[in-house]
Amino acid sequence: MKHIVYKYDSDQSDEMEFDSRGSQILEQGDIVSRHGMSWKVESIEYQDEDNRKLIPTWWVYLTRAVAN
Questions:
Q1: d(Cα 7, Cα 53) in Å, to the nearest integer?
Q2: 22-38 pLDDT, tens digit each
Q3: pTM for this model (two decimals)
């Protein structure tokens, strides 16, 4: 289980999702579709909470992916 915070390089506000099963796997360079647009995962930061009562958080930094 984890929180995922999507941080866009555009004017869009950050978004947070809850992955209850921890099944969503993202890696740098992946292309994801959000709001009908394609985004490239530029980097990912991960914070694992030492306190088992807190849910780990992943910050996913996205830039607009342009098709050639």
A1: 25
A2: 888 999 999 999 988 89
A3: 0.83
